[in-house]
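[job 0412] stage=fold_complex status=start
inputs:
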Amino acid sequence: MIEALNLCKRFQDKKRGEVRAVDGVSFICRPGEIYGLLGANGAGKTTTLRMLATILEPTEGTARLCGHDIVEHPERVRANCGFLSTATALYPRLTAQEMVEYFGKLNGLDAVTLKKRIDDIFDRLDMNDFRDRRCDKLSTGMKQKTSIARTLVHDPPVMIFDEPTLGLDIMTARTIIEFIRECRDRGKTVIFSTHVMREVEKLCDNVGIIQGGKLLAEGTLEQLRQRHGENDLEELFVKIVAPHYVTETV
Amino acid sequence: MRNIWIVYRKELTESLRDRRTLITTFLVPLLIIPVLGAGFTAVMAGVIGKAKKEKPSVMIVGGTDSPGVVAVLQNYSRIEAVPATPDWKNKIIDKEIRAAVEIPEHFDDELAKGHAGTIKIDIYGGEIKSELAAGNLENYLKEYRDNIATERLEANHLPTDLLKPFQVRRESVAPPEKEAGAILGGIIAYALILMCLNGAMSPAIDLTAGEKERGTMETILSSPVSRTHLVLGKFLLVLTASMITALLLMVSAGVSSTVLQKSHTLDQMTEASEPAPHFALGPKAIVSVVIMAVPLAVLFSAGLITIALFAKSNKEAQSYIAPLMFLVLIPAVAAMLPGVDLTLKLAIVPLLNVSLLCKELVSGEYHWNYIVLIFASTCVYAAGALFLAVKMFQRESVLFRS
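[job 0412] stage=fold_complex status=done
writing structure:
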């Protein structure tokens, strides 16, 4: 369960002055559901998700993951969530197994549990061929699988994906989409950000449309379609966002 | 604590697979002293030895009316007397001849009468071979003069020690290791500071700016490890690298100084009558210098992590740290200068104090009040740097600088 309560993040920028990257975002995402955060570049998706993952601290407001407050107990929050984005790279000089082991250990798993968990994940993701290969020698697909294994090693109830398919080829992107769906089916709470409409249609139970740091519309796809009288998701998105869209250099 | 250890172990695994870190941590400190030190002394010994062996060409100018003194000079076995030409000064400048002896007119006649004028030795000042030739000539001519004086005294039935009522002799009472320590200590302190910094540099950059550049910073920050534990784990690894570098440097310095001592390369640099300088570095000096290097390494490790953390890439971090190298070397060089000795004020100047203390330790001097003061003050600076590094790691504006 994720509860975002009036999340705000302000940065000081030399040229632009105070920037409100995220401005009063609140939503709820329940176990067994996928919440899609849909928005253009610079809309505030990444900042929101980084705050949920406690990588950034909110300027105002807070959020709770599985009941743990992100400001008060960031370590507990991180122990309960898996965070995956295209920016979360692997350590090039570690092998795939060492990489996953490292994160398992940091999550406090004991040696026996860790070994069992790793064997299980490596079997399931079909990773045994490159288990002992260094991460810098892996293909993009193998790297993605290793990253997935890394987020899964402590079996977190909450999964956070920040534009997970950005820059990936179709086949690799499909494994990720498949994996996100599987997480939901296992009863995990899933939130993911994207600007790809197809992914939203395929996956999301609930959608939040974000622009300028503000959550402009929220609901199931069906609800949004009815409310705005627009069937095509792309048109729907533009209709909602356009009045708030300011061209800015990012 | 467990997490610090996990982070440390992982960074260790990664660093041991990084060729650049391996080279700066293990290879450079082992080789720098033998290469710089032995190479330098070998070249010096070679140059001086060769200069001593070479028979310098010396021109005898004038003296056509004084065959006596000319014959004396021509008989001198350590020079090669060559016939005079009018352009002898140019020949000295062109290094065709090393020196020229100008004999005044009617020298022999004047000498027989009592007192002759001045014999002038023309040299190329500052040029070692020319100076050596002139030195030898001077001594030889003084001997000739003394002989004449002695003969005259004897002819007049006067005691020969009339001219030298007393003797003067110079003797060094400093123990040989202290004498050499003054020179060697400066070099060791310089190398120690350089190596401590160099050993910490590559891992400090790799573990901070490198992590940002490779995109693993966000990955590790999403794990439950706290940022303080994370930076402490990283710091301990950088410190390990710095200390290994310092330790290997001192071991290498100890071994190569002993080898140098045994090989008698240095004997050629000194006159046969003088004792050879004692350059061997004892285990006691090595251990005490390494202990002093601990707070120094802490200071460098924490300082470099703080600076490198600001950078977004390896390259950027290097450009921040390069000017720092020069800054750090100023006190190291200052300590090498003769006459700069430990005082109460200098004992709290960071880096300079450690350099000066190293110089003393290598010479076998242990001033415990200074040792305690310098160790403590360096610990204070080191703790400050570490505190700063931990604080920096909590700042989003530093971690996610864009």
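[job 0412] summary: Chain B has a mean pLDDT of 85.
[job 0412] exit 0
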